[in-house]
Write a structure and sequence with these properties.
- There is one protein chain.
- The protein has helices at residues 90-95, 116-123, 125-129, 154-162, 167-170; strands at 22-27, 40-49, 55-59, 74-78, 85-88, 99-101, 137-141, 148-153.
- The protein has 177 residues and is of the alpha+beta class.
- The chain has two domains: 1-88, no CATH class; 94-177, no CATH class.
- The strands form two sheets. Strands 1-2-3-4-5 form a five-stranded mixed β-barrel. It has a three-stranded antiparallel sheet with strand order 6-8-7.
- Strand 4 (74-78) and strand 5 (85-88) form a beta hairpin.
- The protein is globular, with a radius of gyration of 18 Å.
- The structure holds zinc ion.
Length: 177
Amino acid sequence: MTEEWRNHPKLKRRFHAEFPGDVQVIIHDGGPRSTDRSPEVVWVTVTGVDENDIFTGRVLNQPQQLTSVVQGAEIKFIVPSGEHLLMVTEKYLQERPDWIVRPCNQCGFDELFDVPSELIHVIFPDIYENENRSMVMFTSFCGVCGGVQVVQHKDARLESQHNDKQEEKKKWWRFWK
Ligand SMILES: [Zn+2]
């Protein structure tokens, strides 16, 4: 069994001093717009990494108040910009390539705690229903510090560059929340 993650550059200096297979990861039930439950930082024993730098690991601590993660569960996590490793879901990993998340204006964190489509459903229920997701650009609260992140669909940028005449269609961008 290979344990290439032990020397993975993204995990450098993140391992526990006495338990060199363990790292600290933020686990969560979602971001501030979808849950009242606060994220928690737990120790996770790394069990693997794939070719896209998606790590897997086993949760060592019992979460205090989260419902989506239990002690002993295997989770996936990634290494965003900034200080913290972040638990991610399969759905998040599926949708994430379609989105640009600008770094948080306070801490530089450039991932979301929520699956983008679910976040849009909360913020823009009408747009979600209209299947207009590719036009979407919005601001969200950073899951780590509560700062502001701008989130943009990859195609939204193209629309704004190529459809200058369609100003009307973009009006709702002013409804940033
Ligand atoms: Zn932040």
